[in-house]
Amino acid sequence: MADPASLTDTADGPPSRLPQPPSGTLALTFDDGPHPDSTPELLAALTAAGHRATFFLCGEQAERHPELVRALDRAGMAIGNHSWSHPSLPGLPLPAAREEIERTNRVLTALTGRPPTLFRPPYGDTGPTIRELATAAGLTETLWDVDTLDWNGVPPAEVAAAVAAARPGDTVLLHDHGNRNTVTALPAVLTALAARGLRSAPLPR
C-alpha cells in the first residue's frame, strides 16, 4: 500500500494528518456506513471481542439509520465524517463540497450530542482546499496505512490476511456498506490480531 501522502495532491496546503492509535494497538476503520446489512454484525463482533474501531459515516446514511449511529456511539466506537453523499469532493464546486462536510457534521452532532473531530474524504480524494474545508469545520483529515481492498470484492481470507500483516500503529481501511465479505472476514481479523497481542482502538478524537 502506498504511503497515505501519495493519496493527496502535491500542491501547497496543510498536510493530511494521521492520528495514531495507542501503543500496542492499530486502528480498524470502517467507511460508508451505517448500513443495516453490515453495521449490527460488525458492531457485535467488535464488542464481543473487546475491540473498538472508528466508523466514518456518510451523512445521508446516518440520517436514514439514526438508531445505528446511536448504537455505535453507545458502544464506544469513534464516529467520523465521511461526507454527506460520498462524492469525489475535489470535483465539486466549493459551496457544494463545504455543504457535504458541514451537513454531515450537523447530523452526527445531533445524533451523538457532540461534533465529530475526524474526517475521511471519499475515495481518499483530497487536496489543500478540501483539507482547509475540513479544518474550518473542526475536523482532522484522516487517511490510512493499509487498504484491505474489501471495497473491491476480494475474498474474506484476503481481507483478513491484509489486516494480519498490518503493523502496530497502522490505520486500516475497511468498509461498512453492506459488503458481506467484510462481515465474514471480521472474526478472522480479530482472531489474527489477538494472536499477535494486538487490539483495535479508536483513533484519537
UniProtKB/TrEMBL annotation:
SUPFAM superfamilies: Glycoside hydrolase/deacetylase
Domain spans labelled NodB homology: 24-201
GO biological process: carbohydrate metabolic process
Region (Disordered): 1-25
Keyword flag Nucleotide-binding: no
Keyword Hydrolase tagged: yes
Taxonomy, superkingdom: Bacteria
GO cellular component: membrane
Keywords: Hydrolase, Metal-binding
GO MF term set: hydrolase activity, acting on carbon-nitrogen (but not peptide) bonds; metal ion binding
Protein name: Peptidoglycan/xylan/chitin deacetylase (PgdA/CDA1 family)
Record lineage: Bacteria, Bacillati, Actinomycetota, Actinomycetes, Kitasatosporales
